[in-house]
From TrEMBL:
The lineage of its organism: Bacteria, Pseudomonadati, Pseudomonadota, Gammaproteobacteria, Pseudomonadales. It is found in: Cell outer membrane. CDD domains: lipocalin_Blc-like. GO terms for biological process: response to stress. It comes from Azotobacter beijerinckii. GO terms for cellular component: cell outer membrane. Gene3D superfamilies: 2.40.128.20. Keywords: Cell outer membrane, Lipid-binding, Lipoprotein, Membrane, Signal. Involved in the storage or transport of lipids necessary for membrane maintenance under stressful conditions. Displays a binding preference for lysophospholipids. Residues 1-22 form the signal peptide. This is Outer membrane lipoprotein Blc. Belongs to the calycin superfamily. Lipocalin family.
Length: 181
């Protein structure tokens, strides 16, 4: 009996690192981001399901604009099942230098923004060559958004992005395509 238990323990020990390999690799971002050209409207094409968007039925977009203090105004919109539009207004601040693709974003009231827990990571991890399709996530890969400058994307560009995300360790089976019509 002890031998069986020992064999099971060894098998589990050996199997676990292989099962979590993709999640343990550090997440890489794009090399640099031209912040002014990133501003504007981005349409959500797909995302990992998350608690703060579960009421969204589709037609989701984000509008980014630079504020005088260098931070970014974030206005997220989505359509609810009722047909109404829900709007969330937040602030993003760039981490690192002026070309850093790493941000923190918060949708909490300004008076509570001193508390680190209200800020979430927003990392630009992929940007296609035409700067029309982008993937955003955070270090643990719990969240993922695919955004586009247009509500629909070319299938070839989307599939190429999915392939790159797969190589970065993302579970594409978790992606939920955003309703656009």
């Amino acid at each position: 009996m002890r031998r069986i238990q020992r064999c099971l323990a060894i098998a589990l020990f050996c199997a676990c690192p292989l099962a979590t390999l993709a999640d343990d690799r550090p997440l890489t971002t794009i090399a640099a981001l031209d912040l002014p050209s990133y501003m504007g409207t981005w349409y959500e094409i797909a995302r990992y399901p998350n608690r703060f968007q579960k009421q969204c039925a589709g037609f989701t977009r984000a509008d980014y604009s630079l504020m005088p203090d260098g931070q970014v105004r974030v206005i997220n919109r989505c359509r609810l099942q009722s047909g109404e539009t829900e709007i969330a207004i937040g602030t993003a601040r760039q981490l690192g230098g002026a070309r850093s693709p790493k941000f923190e974003v918060s949708f909490a009231p300004a008076w509570i923004s001193l508390i680190p827990a209200v800020w979430g990571d927003y990392w630009v991890i992929d940007f296609d060559e035409q700067h029309r399709l982008v993937a955003v996530s955070e270090p643990r890969r719990e969240y993922l958004w695919i955004l586009s400058r247009t509500p629909q994307v070319e299938r070839q560009s989307y599939e190429a992005l999915l392939e790159r995300l797969s190589r970065k360790g993302f579970d594409l089976g978790k992606l939920m395509v955003t309703r656009q019509k």
